[in-house]
Structures are given as structure tokens and as C-alpha cells.
């Protein structure tokens, strides 16, 4: 089967959505753990709102541009290969970010404010990934 640019764009979108959903559930579970430690529900609510706000800013200034740049790169490929849906440097960055996120989550257990901070960070990234995915649909 010949790899097409369309297949690469689908694979890029799938990775983007997987990241959004994994980070959402991870961030949400950290906030649930924080809520179990401290019954200050307003902090959890406002961290969720803050995460959405920061996520929207990330979409506007970082993530849309990143998606569009990658889609442009895919469009410019002469003979696309299945592994080219992202650059190799993106995968290295992904390994680093996943490792850092896992480490921060591990450190945060049992600490209310650390749980809230890491949960908010994860949710903001989740919202940014999900909302910026519109770039994949605009560029079909």
C-alpha cells in the first residue's frame, strides 16, 4: 500500500488526539486526588477554568502554528513514508515531555498544591491539543 499525504495527516491527527485524551484523564485524575486531600472545591473549579483559559492561549500562540507547520511540511513531501507524519525531533521531544510529565505526577502525589498545579498544566495542554486539532480539519 502506498503511503499518501492524507494518511500522514490522519496519523498526525490521531497522535494529537491521543495526547489530548491522555492528558485530560491524567489531569482530571490529579485534580480528583487533590480534591480528596482537601475539600476546597473552589480551588479545583478555578484550576479547571484557568486550565481552559491557558489552553486557549496556547492554541492561539503555539499549537495552531505548530499544526499548520507540520501539515505544510507533509504537503511538501515528494515521496511520503509512513514514519514522516512528524519529524524525528518531535518524537524525541514527545519522549522527553512524557517522561517529565510522569515524573512530575509521581512527585505530586500527596501534595495538594503540587497536584493542582500539575493537573492544571496537564488539562491546559489537553485543551490546547484538542482545540488546535481544528487545523487538521481545515487542511483536509
What does this structure look like?
The protein is mainly alpha-helical. The chain has helices at residues 5-37, 41-75, 88-108, 112-132, 134-138. The longest helix has 35 residues, at 41-75. The protein starts with a helix and ends with a helix. The model has no long low-confidence stretch (mean pLDDT 95).
Quick description:
This protein has 140 residues and is mainly α.
Keywords:
mainly alpha; 140 residues; elongated
- Low-pLDDT windows of residues: none
What is the typical, i.e. mean, pLDDT?
A: 95
Helix and strand composition category: mainly alpha
Number of strands: 0
Q: Strand-residue fraction?
A: under 5%
Q: What string gives the helices and strands in order?
A: HHHHH
**Oligomerization:** single chain
User: Which value, in Å, is the CA radius of gyration?
Assistant: 17 Å
Topology of this structure?
Blueprint: H1 5-37, H2 41-75, H3 88-108, H4 112-132, H5 134-138
Helix pairs in contact: 1-2, 1-4, 2-4, 3-4
Amino acid at each position: 500500500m502506498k503511503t499518501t499525504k492524507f494518511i500522514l495527516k490522519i496519523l498526525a491527527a490521531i497522535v494529537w488526539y491521543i495526547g489530548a485524551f491522555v492528558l485530560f484523564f491524567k489531569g482530571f485524575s490529579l485534580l480528583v486526588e487533590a480534591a480528596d486531600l482537601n475539600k476546597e472545591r473552589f480551588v479545583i473549579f478555578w484550576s479547571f477554568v484557568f486550565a481552559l483559559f491557558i489552553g486557549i492561549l496556547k492554541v492561539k500562540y503555539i499549537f495552531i502554528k505548530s499544526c499548520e507547520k507540520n501539515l505544510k511540511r507533509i504537503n511538501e513531501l515528494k515521496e511520503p513514508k509512513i514514519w514522516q507524519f512528524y519529524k524525528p525531533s518531535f518524537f524525541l521531544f514527545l519522549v522527553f515531555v512524557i517522561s517529565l510529565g510522569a515524573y512530575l505526577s509521581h512527585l505530586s502525589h500527596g501534595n495538594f498544591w503540587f497536584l493542582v498545579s500539575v493537573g492544571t498544566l496537564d488539562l491546559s495542554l489537553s485543551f490546547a491539543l484538542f482545540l488546535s486539532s481544528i487545523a487538521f480539519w481545515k487542511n483536509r
